[in-house]
Structure formats: C-alpha cells, structure tokens
Protein 1
Amino acid sequence: MPGTAWAAWPERPITLYVPWAAGGGTDATARVIGTLLEKKLGQPVNVVNRDGGSGVVGHTAIAQAAPDGYTIGIATVEIAMMHWQGLTKLSFADYTPLALMNLDPAAIQVKADAPYKTIKDLVADIKKNPGKLKASGTGQGGIWHLALAGMLTDLGVDPTASPWVPSKGAAPGLQDLVAGGVAIAACSLPEARSLIDAKRVKSLVIMDTNKSTLFPDVPTLKAETGSDWTMGAWRGIVAPKGLPADITKKLIDALDSIYKDKEYTGFMGKQGYGIRYAGGDDFLKFWQDSDKSMGVVMKKVGLAK
Amino acid sequence: MGSVVQAMELVMRPDVLVAIILASAFGLFVGAIPGLTATMAIALLVPVTFFMDPLPAIGAMIACSAMAIFAGDIPAALLRIPGTPASAAYADEAYAMTKNGQADLSLGSNLLFSAIGGLFGTAVLIVAAPTLAEIALQFSSFEFFWLCLLGLTCGVFIGGNNPIKGLISLFLGLLVACVGLNNPAGVPRFTFGNVDLMGGIDFIPAMIGLFAISEIIRYLISDISAVGTPQEVIGNLFKGWGTMIRKYWRQQLRGNITGTIVGILPGAGADIAAWVSYAISKRFSKTPEKFGKGHLEGIVESTSSNNAALGGAWVPALVFGIPGDSITAIVIGVLFMKNMNPGPTLFLNHPEQIYAVFVIFIIANLLMVPLGWAAIKGSKQILRVPRHILMPCILMFCIVGSFAINNAIFGIVIMLAFGVVGFLMEENDIPVAPAILGIVLGPMVEQAFVTSMIKSDGAALGFFERPIAAGLGVVTIFVWISPFLVPFIKRALRPAAQA
Amino acid sequence: MRFNDAIIGIILIVGAVAVYLYARTLPDIPGQEYGAAVFPMIVACGLGLCGAALTVSGARNWQGAAALAPWTAQPGPWIRAGAMLLAIFFYIFAGNALGFMITSTVSLFALFVLLGSRWWAALFIAVVVSLLIERSFGDLLLVPLPRGVLWI
C-alpha cells in the first residue's frame, strides 16, 4: 500500500501495547513515551497492557496487529530470548524496529556484610565451592539469570556452579538476598537502588562498557576482570512487520526527538533507568546482536531447545 | 514536633486537598466496578501524577486505594459481584444479608470498619515502620512457604459445612493456578500450544464468572415472573454503629492486626488479608454455623482487615523500597519520580515529608465516612431496578470488566467458562470461594516450595532450620492436627474439672 | 442438576489421574530435581484423594446417579440461559467487527425483550446503558473497547 493513501497519518488515536502489567518499569517507560508521542503527533496515544506468559502474550498481540501505524508496541529484551526456548516463533523478523529507547545493564549484588570486596573474590569463591552460592533476581532463564551465567562462562567458570533460584522479579530476589536465602542477586542497579542506599546490599560490578551515572562507584566488568562480557535489559518501540516506509520514518523522527526531550531524559534519570538510543536499522542491528548472544548463553546453560 | 507542624502545613493546602478528594471519588468509582481493581485505579492515576507536585500525587494515590478497597464491598453486598478481589472473601455473606433485608447494616459495617481498619494500619505505620520492615526483610521463601500453607488452610474453614467439598474446591483452584508459563521452571503447562493460555488464567475474570455469572444463570433458570425476595431499601447507615463497635471489638481488633501483618509481608496484600481474617473469624467464632447465611461477625473482621493491609503494605515500601503489595509496587515508582526515594534516609532527611504522608493517610480514612456514605446512598438505587432489567445490565458489566483486566477477549472466555463451572459446583454444594483462594495463593505456594527445595538442595529439614520458619512450621502443623487433638484434650480435662 | 457425590468423586479421580500423567511429561529445571512437574502432581494427588473420599460417602447414600431440578423440565429456563450464552458468544465473536455500541445494544435489547420488557422501553434502556458503559469505561477508564464500524 504505497504513499499517498497514508499521507494524512495519523488521523485517529494510536494504540501502544505493553507486554507487561501496569505499574512496572516497562509500563512506566511506555507511558512517558506515549504521553510525549501524543504531543508530537497530535493524536491520543492509548497505552494498553497485555500482560502474561512472561511477555509472550503481549509481544504476540503486537506482531499480529495490522501494520497501519495505529498499533505500535514496546518490545522488551525477552523477545530476543523466548524463541530460543521454543516459547514462541516470534523474533526480530516479525516486527518493524522503530527505536531503542532504554538499556539497563546487569549488575551483581551481594549482602553489604558479605566477605567479598570485588567481583574477583566472589567468582573465586563460586569456583572453589560449586553449588554453594545460590543466585536469584528473576525467573528461570530470565535476563539476569543469563547475565550471570554468561559472565561466569566468560570468566571460565561453569555457570551451574552458582545455581539459579527463580524469583518473580528483582524485588523478591533482593529480599531473599537480604533475608539470607541466597548469596547473590543479579539485577539492574535501579532495581537494587533502595537497598544499596539503605546499605543492606552492595553492588560489585556492572556488565557494561561504561559506568552507571546512578552509582559511579560500581566498576565495570572489563575494568575488574578484563572480560568483554556485557548484558542488559533493553526496551524499544516497534511496529508490526510491513509498516509503510513513510509512517516508519515519521515515527522514528518523533521517537528521536522524544529521546532528546528533557521530559524523557528527566523522567528516566529520576527513575534511575539507563537511556540508550538506536533508530531504525541501527536498532535492528542491535536487536540481532542481542538475539545472537542470548542464543549462545542459553545453549550453554541448557535453556535453549 | 517541628516537623509535624510543618507536615500539617504541607498537607493543608488547597491543591493537596483537592487532589485527595478527586482521587477519592475516582477510587470509589473504580473500586465499585467489577473487573477494575484498586491496583488498576492506581495505575490509571500514574500518568496524571506526572504533572503534579509530590504531595498531591502521593495523597491522590493513598486516598484512591483506600476508597477503592472499601468501594469493592458495595457491589459485593448488593449484587454478589466483588468490586475488587479484596471483597471476594465475604461477598456471599454480605449478599446474604442484603437478601435478608439487612443491606444497610452490612454496608454500614463495611464503611465503619473499613475506616477504622485503615486508621489502625496507619497507626502501625507511624509507630513502628522501621522495626517492622526490618522483621519483614528477614522473610525468605521458607517462611513464606509456611505462611502460604496457613493461608490455604483458611480455604477449608471458609468453605461451607462439608470439609471434603471445600478441599475439592481449593484443589481445583490450585490446579487452575498451574496453567500457563508463570511457574518457577518457566515452562508452559496445560497450554496445549495456545498463546492466551500461556498467560495463565487470570483470577479476576474467573472470580466474576464464579460469583456473578453463576448468579445470573440461577436467576435465568428461576421462575422470573415471580416477585423476587423483597429487599429493604437502605435506611439509616449509621444505625447501630455504637452497638457494633461494642459487640464486635474483638473481631475488629483481630482483623486490624491480621490485616496489617499480611500487608507488611512483601507480596501479599488486601485480598489475602480479607480471606485469612474471614477464616480466622469463623474458626474462633462461638456461632460458626451462622456464617454464610448473613452473619455480621465475619464481615466485620475481614472488612477491617483489607483496609488495614493498605497501611501495612507501605511499611517495607517506605523503609526499603520493597513493595508490600501490588499497589505499593506502583507507588514506589512514583516516589522515585518525585525525589522521595524510599529508604531509611527518607525518615532522617525529610521527616516532614514522611509525616505529611501519615497525615494524608489519616485524612483519607476519615474522609471515607462521608464519601462512602454518599456512594452507598447513590448505589442503593440499584435495588429499586427490576431484576429483568438489572440482570442483563450486570451481564454487560461483567463482560466489559472481564475484558478490561488485560484488555483481552480471552478474559470473557474465562468468565463464561468459570460461570458455568461455578453454577454446577454450587448446585452440588461445592463452595466456590475456596477455589478463588486456590487461584490466588497457588503461584505463591509453588514458588515458595520449589525455590526452598532448590536452596536447601532438596533437604526437607531446610523448612525448619531458620528460627522464624521453624516457629511458623510448628504453628501450621498444630493448626492441622488441632481438630483431632482438641476433643482429646477436652475429654482428658473434663474429669479434672468435675472433681 | 444434582449429581450423586459418587459420580462427582469418580469424575475427579479420572481428572486427577489425567493431570498426574500429563504432569509427568513436564521437564525439570536443568540441574535441579524440582521443576514444573512437582506442584501439579501434588495437587493431582490431593484432588484424587478427595475424589475417593467423596466416592465412598456418595456410594453409601446412593439415591440414583443424578437428580434433575424441576426447572429442567420446562423450556423457558433453557431458552433464557441459552440466550445469555448467545449474548456472550455474540460479543466474543462479533464484538471486534461491530464495535461495542452495536454489540452491547443488540444483546441488551434482545435479553430485555426476552425477559418481558416492552420493546420500546427495552430499546431505550439498551441504548442508554450501552452509552453509559462506553463513556465510562472507554473514555474515563481508558479501556480500549472495540470501536468497530461506528468509530473508524
């Protein structure tokens, strides 16, 4: 369906699907983007939550919508992971990538009074006592599980030496860490923020090329161990496959200006969320890379089918 | 004291008060509509709070959640449709009272004890937040496992006279909770390749089906030309408040304490608090046979409990940024956005802000009495509508409500299926309430059990190794064997008493 | 429609066995003994035991397999309950295409008339109630009700 018929887009309200429940980090990000998108495009943007099945339900709803520019969605890192587990067939090929808007790198937390000063101490202990130090922070095969497993693999340690205790998100995992149920909690720094501030947990390392602006004292994995391993949870705005080129361009332009908007950076900064941008083809490239490295780790840990 | 005065000044500003009143009205509205929960009311407020100052934003959320939890009682009593899951535990009881012509008494007690429960939870939050949060933070999956088992035990007490049928209902609920991807192993169960089933069976459409649709079916198969049971239109709501407080002070206090504790524990909120309190009330009642037929005792205890839980949930949220329930999970995000980062430092560096939050809590619960009165007065008109007009309208509300929870047609399918099943269950004297408890608690029990087994490397002893867990375990086992022990002890004691 | 407890008990036992067998096929967490199968298997055992208990007590009070309620002999209740099912199915299958306003008005009108309202009153109330729901849910609470053919 070429050009002219779509010239007047958008003529009616746009729906923005969120594959997670109302109230979470993805929901908050989507809602702020939705509000700003409404200003840029001059049409209401309705944020609609489609929760369930670790994101499968909502991501499917986005992919199955009509590619007319009136249904878009926020895709999360899970879309690069689920097809390896055989939970869905969907991958980057089923969407029109618009813009990567956020990236929260993984970090490793231990109890504040734990005997480990650096990540090297911790890894050495894991290596010495396989199976003793349990870790938590998300569900089985979730993003933080893969981050830890990938890091251990990269440092030459068997990833099963630190068995994963599945939890329903970072908050229960951190709670279990403080309560003494597990020894390690892997999650992003903003998720651990309150407990770090309360001096109940300490963060040993961040799996990113740059330090976090939220906690600049936390060293990067590269600086501590020389490992090039990085991993983070990302969120990006996508449309169903086959979105007409002119609408794609309009949306990418709008998202690009939102990313530079003070309201967006201010909101994300206050929440402590990391921001990262990649538009159109750059986003696709980023997505493909993420997809590939997830596949490698998941095969190592025995999660991929 | 200086910061208390400062806090009062912060709150007693027109913009804060207007925000509180508007949010209260919104909360009453959303809470009274089936399918829309208090959590969703708060989530809908979030984009609005983007543009507000910190205190009006926080005030709006506190007031909205308190009102929504109370308002859920109104349709529960009038139509047997719990407006929010927190009212499900005593929906049958309250509806039975309405049928007996006692709607004013039941709704009056909902209003009174919701407000008192809310104030109790607030008092605990003010006095002991840091200490209690410290204790809550010591809870690991072992402790949660025992608590979940205690919660499930409630299912047997709430379900009618035949314990076997209560258990069947509970197990059916637990089985429903197994459906989907939401399990510790993250593998799809009972999904048969269906994407909708991967998301699991949401308990809100299930609840609407079990309670409301089954009631509609019962109406449709009855002799509709007959005049329905005469329903006294609500009279004076405040009638008997003094007597109720005196007569039920024990139940009310117990409900307040239970609710606050359940609220403080991370992950469990107002809905579970109400179930537990209802069960406790029946278990320790001198007249348990009256329960389920329109008896005030259980309503008093559980309606106090669910509002007390709201204040309790803020304890770990404010002190450690760990949500006590799904509502505070959203609130924490807003606190960060408004530069009121949760943590012990919030109490040290900005005491006036914390006190202002407390003051708002108190105002919101006091405001509940006049606003709740108006809401009840308004909705009592429902009882004047002829049944043959009312029932189709309820059906449409149920359809939209089941859709709204996840914006999916699949919710309506769930509603229909559970409506038919619920009808058949009640025809055969199998109570539906324990099934809902099973759906709510199932994922928590499984999570706690499986993660505990992983942590203890499969050793059952792990469940007794930690002091709190061991204590809870002993209590649970005692509760289980007490029905068999108590008659034995009584028999052993009787000769001694006679001598 | 009351069944004898023994019949319900047997249905539950069969269901429990099916669940147990299905659960055995579920995979474990890699490297762990306890996985997706444990909990459904425990629940199936519980359900099966309760079913057995019910079968025993039901067999003791055997008064025929099922007792039909008086309403089942009349056509009216079947028609009314069937109409409710139709209304729900109508919404599930036609709601998206026709939109909320049309689907809701048609269903409500039909049910009102079936339950004994006059057609003009039924039409009026059906339109008003549908509008009310559409405005309150769709506009105030931002629930994305299907717009269908009326609002493109």
Protein 2
Amino acid sequence: MAMLEIDGVSKRYGGLQAVKDVTLRVGKGEIVSLIGPNGAGKTTLFNLITGFARPDSGRVRLEGEDVTGLSPEAVARHGMVRSFQITNVFANMPVIENLRLASYLRMRSPLLSDVFGLRSARDRAARTMKEANGILDLVGLARFRDTPAKRLAYGQLRLLEIAIALCVRPRLLLLDEPAAGLNSREGEKLTELLRRLRDGRGLTVLLVEHDMDLVMSVSDRVVVLNFGEKIAEGTPAEVKENPQVIEAYLGTPFEEEAA
Amino acid sequence: MTENRIVLLLLALAAVLPAFVGDQYVMHLLIMTFFYAMLSTSLNLIVGYVGELSLGHAAFLGLGAYTSAVLSTEAGLPFWLCLPAAGIVAGTAALAVGAITLRLEGHFFVLISLAFAEVLRYVVMNSVELLRGPLGYPNIPAPSLSFGGTVLADFASKAHFYYLGLALLAATLYAAWRFARSSFGLGALAVRENRRLARAVGIDPFRHALVAFVAGGVLAGIAGSFYAHYLTFVGPEVLGFSFTLSALMMVVIGGRGTLLGPLLGAAVVGITLELLRSVNEARLSIFGILLVLAVMFLPDGLVSLRWRRRPEPAEESPTEALDSPLRS
Amino acid sequence: MLLSDFLQFALNGLVTGCFYALTALGLSLVFGLMNIVNFAHGALFVLGGMLASVATERLGLPLWAAIPAVLAIMWGLGVVIEAGLLARMRDAHILPVTLVTIGLSVFLVNTMLMLFGTEPKNVKTGLEGAPIFLGDVIISQSRILAIGVSVVAIIATWLLISHTRAGRAMRAVFQQPEAAALAGIPIARIHSFTFALGTTLAGLAGILLGAVFVVDPSRAEPAAVKAFVVIILGGIGSLPGAVLGGLLLGLAESLWGGFVSTGYMDAVGFVLVIAILLFRPSGLLGAPASRVG
C-alpha cells in the first residue's frame, strides 16, 4: 500500500483554480519531489494534504486511511507532519524547548495523572527528552541545545524545523522548500540528511523544492505541477527530458530557470 | 532564587504577618489582596498561558458568588459545601461558553466573551423574583469550622478569614503551577507561541484553550464564593466588567504567563490604589495613566525586571551547525 | 399594537441608530485597519459631546461654529493618541494594546468626571422650536438635525474613502497590508489618518447625542461596547455593515423597549451578537470569523 495517495484533489479560490484534479502516490520509504514554477499550486497542495485548507473535491489517504478534511492537528496525529515555506519555529524558546513542545503528543498522558505529577508522566517526560537530544545530534544542532531559536542562523533554523517535525515521529514528512535560502554546501548537507532519514529511519518524504540540484540528487521520483495541474511524473532523469516540463519553465533551458 | 521559591516565601511571610499587624483595616486590605490574587491567577490561566484575551471573566466570579449566596441563604448549606459547588457551577458555565466561543478568531473572542458576561449581568439584574435582581443577597453567613461538636473557628474575627483566604490562595497557586507544568500547560504554551506550528505538530488549540478556560472558571468561581462569604453581600456588580478589568490589570502589570506575576500584580495594584486615596478625585485618572505607562514600558510585567532574559549576546552567529555531525 | 406607535418607536430607533452607526463606523475603521480593539472609543465619543457642551453652553458659540471646532480638536487628539501610544505598539500582542486603550479610557473618563462632574450635559442647538408632526408621529427639530448631520457625515466618510487618494490607500491597507507596504503606501501615515478619522466620527456622534439627549461620562463604556456589538452585527471589515448594523440595533432596541420590556433593552444587542456569531459568524455583510490557520 502506498504511504500517501492523493486522488483527484482540486481547490478553487475565487476565480483561481489553484489545484486541479491532482492525483499522485508516494510509496513507503520514497523521497518524492514536487516541482513547478511559482504559483503552480505546490504549497496549496501541501495545505490541502495537511488540513490547513480543505479540498473542494478529491480524497487524501495515508496508508489507506482517509484523512481528507481533517484538522491540521488531527492530520499530524495520523503521522503526517509538515514544515512551512516561511521559517516557523517557537522563536522565543531555546532549541531544546522547541523539540520538547513538538514531542508533546507523545509526552501527553492522561490529564489527571499528569497534573498530579505521577511517576508514569515523569518517566515519559524523561524518555522524550532523551529522544529530543538524539534528534538534535542527528540534524547537527546539539551544540545549540540551549540557544534561543531566534538567535540561530538561517540554515540552522531550517534544520530546527526538520528536527521539530521529526519529534512528532512522522511516518510521512512534508517539507516545503527546506533548501530555500541555504548556500550550496548547506544544501548538500540537507541532501545527506534526507537520505539518512530515508535509509536509516525508513521515513517517507514529500518535498516542494526549487533547488534543482537537491531535487535531482535526492529524489526517487519527481512530480511536476503547472497552473495547478500535474503535467509530468517520473524519475529525475525522465522529468528533465520531458518537453512539457521544459515548456512549463517558460521554454528556458531547465537548469537555468531552476538555478 | 527561583520563581517558585519566591512565591513560597511570600506565602510564608503572609502566614506570620498577622502576628505583627493588628490593624483591622490593613487586615481587610490583605484579605482583599488574597481575593484579587486568586481572581487574577485564575484569569492568567487563559490570558497568560493560552494567550486568549477573555473579557468575560467576571461572569465566572459572579456565578461562584451567586451560587454560594443562594445555597447558603436559601438552602442553608454550610460554606464548605458552597465553596466546591461554586467552583462546579462556574466551571460548567465556562465549559459551555468556552465550547462555543473559543473557536472564534482572537478579536471576535475578545468581544463575544464580554457579550456573554454582560448578558448574564442583565439577566441577573432583571430577574427580581428568582435572583432578587439589583437587591442582591445580604447576610450571607460566615463559614464555621467545627470538629466533633467543638467549634475550631467561627470566623467572627478577620484573622480567621485571613487564613482562609491565604489557604485558598495557596491552593489556587498550586493548581495553577500544576497546570503550567503539565503537558497540557506545555501544549497551551505552544499554541500561544506559534499557533500554526502547534497545529502542525498535532496540538489542538481549541482543546487546550478550553481546558485552561474551564480551569480558570473553576478557580474564579471559588474566589467568588470566598468573596461572598467574606463581604456577606452579593449583587449584580460582581458580574460587572470592572472585576475583569482589575484582574486583567493585575495579570499584565505583574507579568502574564507566570506564577508570581498575578500575585505581585494584585499586591501592587492594591497598594497603588490605596496610596492614591490621598488625591481622591484624581485617583482613577492617575491610575489610568499608570496603567498605560506600565503596559507600554513594562509589557512583560514586573516579573520581567527580575527574570529579564539574560542580556542578548553580541550578534556572533553560531557557525556552521551543518558541518559536524552528518559526517559520520 | 398601533401602527402609529410602531412608527414612533421606529423613528426613535432610527435616531439612536444614527449614533450607533457613526460610532461604529469610526470604530470599524480602527478595528479593521489597525487591528485594535479600542476601548477608549466610548470615552472619545463622550468627550466630543462634553466639548460641544462647553462650547455652546459656556462659551456661547453657535452650533454651526462649535461642531467644526470640536471636530478639529478631536482630530488632533486622535493624531496625538495614535502617535504617542498606538504607533509604538504596532506589532504588539492584542492583550497589551487592548489594555492601553482601556487605560486611556479610564484616564479620559475620570478626568472628565473631575473637570465636568457627574451631571449630564446638554449641547445647545438653538433649535428649541415646536416639534414637527408627521401624521401621528412626532419628531423634534434637534432629532431631524441629528439624522441630517449623520447622513451627511456617513456620505462624507464614504466619499473620503472611495474617492480620495488617502481613502484608496486606506482600503489597500485594509485589504492587503503586506501588499500595500510593498507598494510603498506609507502605512504609518494611513494609521494616523485612520485613527484621527475614527476619533472624529466618535466625537461627532457624541455631539449629536448631546444635542438630542444628554451626555455624561458614565456613557463611555456602554457606548464602546455597543459600538463593538454593532460592528460584529454588521460584519467586521465592512463599513456599510457598520452603518447598517448601527441602524438595525437602534431599531431593534427601540422596538423591543417599546413593545416588550425596557429592562432588557441594553441586552438586545448582546443577544443579537451571540445569535449572529453562532449562526452567521461573518456578520451581516462581512468575512468569516472562525480561524483558518
């Protein structure tokens, strides 16, 4: 069974058909990239999948379970966790506190046992903390454990976002332009991190990305959107050669626009 | 010294204070300060921890006070039963109101919360037959504490009320502290800090706001019960906006989202109003200015003077996090 | 129930509705554009009436001279409040901003009490002539004046917003703050202009209230709350909604008070608001109130 199945999803905002009858599948353990020119509907599609917007029609299934139209928090609880295009962290809090908040779902215990500080709740809190530290090591932010998030450099913020998402223990991770604003070396590190998440943790990743180096090197498959419609799908190599895709990027040579 | 220790120290100081203060008027002011500290602590749960501006908090205070007034004067129930009943009634009302209003966007919530409280006030004011309307309930009996036929405390003196108020305040603070430290408090904090991200990691803002709202309602109801039995009179004005306003000022001036803040706020606002008595006519005008200045220049309240975040280090950006660990 | 009673109550309601519409219009501008829950709006409303009372009763100015003078003062006061307080808190949380307006309101109301006392004040109109009969319905000359001035003010505000450069900039900020900033619209000046306009409209409503009935500082808080009720009824962000909501609330209260019970008259608005938010959260003419993200 596929990890994520999107079936004929559409969304219209006033006169604008933002997403039109998009169908796509993401297999377990795959990294799939969603690309397309600006305004192609990629972020809208993300919002539709994760409950931040409600599709006009179509279904979204996560491992066969229908999650269409659920609230964002319910979607997250089903194991589908997203990051945002614009950096989004708990800015006033230290890095580790960010992760503690993100681990909240697993830390939560029955209200009363928690309020009365029972041992089970405390044990759970200790375990969560340990795991958060592990995730910090994994993404490489261990050194900034106690740094307030707003004091991190841009590239580190993007990593923190991924770490936050990982704390929810997702089955499927959706990343909205994780490489935006990263320099090329940071981009390579991100590629490496994504591969490790897939290979080491068996995580499935769907990402929206403009950085074609990243897309081409990390993706198992690439899906291309234009004007809200899916116009192509395939391996990175296939998509690169697809005439429709080249056309969509304004006829300019693909690499140039993408860079 | 941590915040918790300061709170404990203040409570301990308050416990020994009556040994040195005999003046009845000062005792009265202190008892009212306990009451306001309870009220603002209860409001702080929703305003400080969840970040929703509720302007209808007096409704829960008033419901608690009226519950106590009606049960003790009409049904003759003792204070010790009226008190929990007041909490339950106010909490139930908070559940109903919160379930309807907390789904609304912030600015709407502000106004609708006020609307509910005002409607309640009009209803009470106009139901002369059922709730005595503007007449209110006089002669609410004082509590009494007896054990096996021996009366331990008859609450004829202010000192008894003083310790009752202090005990209730301590219990309120303990409840608030427990709430803030629970995972529920943590979730509420996440919602306050970044609502979108909180939702993306699976935290339901509505549910958290509702729990805080109900907890705040229960505590406000209990404060209302204490108020009713201490002042022996309850009228529609306990449902009025001015109680909400006072509590709100105390929360913000003290420091919202902290345990110590409402406590400090209640003390400081109370003392300031007392000091301004000498300039009687201009008292509230000056108070208005002080409120504006306090909010503008000390937006995080008095507690931020002590717990101001450590000075920001110079802009040396922590370098190259991406470097090390992925290398393995 | 008699038709003439109904018409008389409706007419009275229309007069009150004009006050509501004017106050709500000013508040709606400030609320919609600057995102401020301005509790001082009611105090500013009363202040307008108080100043006009001083101008006409004590200084003996004729009404036609007093109105522009008071409005000019209100405008200036609006600019000062915006620059001194609100502009410094533009990105602050709703809580401190609301509290600042509450503090301002406490200050204004109590200072007025100190200066003018608790006694209700009247604005002298010079229109002490006999009331006018329209069939069985009676209307005083000052009420006709109030309705007339309100209509003129509402039309003037509408022209200002739809036909001037400042108005267009206001609408742009209203609808798309980010885009407006990118397009180089001076947001700071627009905020100043908007708040001054809101303050002036509140002041005008206060003047008219004083001309028809009386004003006193105790009316400040209920007036602010009523104005909020009106903009929720009409729909937040909708200026026609504010006017319509004001007129409807005036009518509803007057008819309720006339035919049912005067006790609950002031609760009518709240009940309407609760009903509206439960069944049509967007108000009569507005955008949805529930949260999106």
